[in-house]
Write a sequence for this structure.
């Protein structure tokens, strides 16, 4: 296929958290607001005067100093973020909006907080006089009371502090403006993603992963023109005459912000056609609907709780619904198999991955490859062997079924 016009530019934007578009927005006088979790609604961090940056630690290989503070039994992702912060890679942040969800990233963000104690007066990780870190509590259920509690947390700890610290306009009109911008990004990402449903997709999983990531880590108003051009470009992009893959897979699991992991899978012969993982588009790029007369913050709270398929929701009906959702995605995207990958020491996805491995094969007849990996794929040779063996097993199943 013809190379996408902006792909190299997008790849370069992912090399550093403080990328060129972030620097441009900072030069425009806007505040950079970091976050790590889907449950911190990025839409509220993209109000006029500020922009959201979902944190990553690209090319971090040895989080040795972070391990001293967080221990070797904390997931590599959280330690890599801590390492990058200690290196000064997040000094551009004006605030970090944290959620009481993932324990590991919560610990990382607790370290970012200014302590104002003599005993740790030198522990100034983010070298920015304006910087502050705020936490919200996220419910474990999806009920009317949960929506109300979540909305109040967002009003007090997100909107309230942004207005207090930086004078950000947090009116309903400003929130609605941010929702419109967020929905345009989502529509463009979904439009691009639709091409993955073709028998011979005109976009690779790697390319889509890169495009989705830049929409998370770059100021929306600056990345939107490039997304519009890419969506228009996709309308005339022709597929390769011969399929460059042997099967299609859905990739599910925990935090995954490394496009090279998707590239590794595809180099083994599979085409990744759907991303049901943290940082993926399945949940984060759903359209936010505000019902007539509804408070926009309440609409956002309802949307983010309802849209999530995070394994932190543990009622039996929620767990069963997540398995059905994965099966539905495999059918919708015409996938031949499922790869479930969790980061080592990931509390939630370690359990979810094991359950998915059994249930998806037993109850839905979907071939499953179960992977536990580090944040950075240092063991790429071992992973390649696993993926190649899985793809061969999928092909054997197809032959047996006469496909």
């Amino acid at each position: 296929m013809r190379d996408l016009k902006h792909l190299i530019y997008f790849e370069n934007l992912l090399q550093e958290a403080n990328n060129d578009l972030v620097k441009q927005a900072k030069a425009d006088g806007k505040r950079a607001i970091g976050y790590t979790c889907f449950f911190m609604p990025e839409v509220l961090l993209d109000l006029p005067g500020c922009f959201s940056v979902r944190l990553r630690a690209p090319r971090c290989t040895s989080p040795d100093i972070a391990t001293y503070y967080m221990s070797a039994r904390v997931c590599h992702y959280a330690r890599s973020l801590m390492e990058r912060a200690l290196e000064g890679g997040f000094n551009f942040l004006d605030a970090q909006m944290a959620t009481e969800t993932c324990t590991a990233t919560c610990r990382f963000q607790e370290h970012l907080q200014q302590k104002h104690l003599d005993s740790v007066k030198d522990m100034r990780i983010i070298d920015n006089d304006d910087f502050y870190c705020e936490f919200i509590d996220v419910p474990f259920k999806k009920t009317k009371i949960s929506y109300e509690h979540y909305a109040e947390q967002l009003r007090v700890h997100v909107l309230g502090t942004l207005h207090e610290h930086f004078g950000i306009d947090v009116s309903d009109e400003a929130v609605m403006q941010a929702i419109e911008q967020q929905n345009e990004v989502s529509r463009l990402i979904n439009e691009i993603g639709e091409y993955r449903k073709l028998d011979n997709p005109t976009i690779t999983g790697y390319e889509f992963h890169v495009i989705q990531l830049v929409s998370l880590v770059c100021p929306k108003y600056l990345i939107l023109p490039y997304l519009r051009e890419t969506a228009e470009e996709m309308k005339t992009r022709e597929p390769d005459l011969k399929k460059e893959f042997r099967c299609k897979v859905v990739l599910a699991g925990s935090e995954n912000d490394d496009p090279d992991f998707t590239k590794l899978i595809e180099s083994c012969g599979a085409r990744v056609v759907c991303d049901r993982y943290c940082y993926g588009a399945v949940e984060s790029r759903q359209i936010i609907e505000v019902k007539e007369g509804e408070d926009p913050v309440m609409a956002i709270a309802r949307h983010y709780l309802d849209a999530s398929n995070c394994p932190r929701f543990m009622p039996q009906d929620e767990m069963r619904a997540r398995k059905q959702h994965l099966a539905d995605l495999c059918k919708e995207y015409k996938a031949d198999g499922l790869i479930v990958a969790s980061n080592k020491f990931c509390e939630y996805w370690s359990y979810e991955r094991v359950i998915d491995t059994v249930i998806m094969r037993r109850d839905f007849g979907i071939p499953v490859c179960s992977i536990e990996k580090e944040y950075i794929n240092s063991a790429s040779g071992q992973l390649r062997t696993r993926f190649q063996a899985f793809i061969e097993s999928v092909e054997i199943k197809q032959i047996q079924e006469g496909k």
User: Anything to note?
Assistant: The mean pLDDT is 92. The first strand starts at residue 31 and ends at 35. The chain is about 50% helix and 10% strand. The beta strands are 31-35, 50-54, 95-99, 132-136, 247-253, 270-277, 337-343, 368-373.
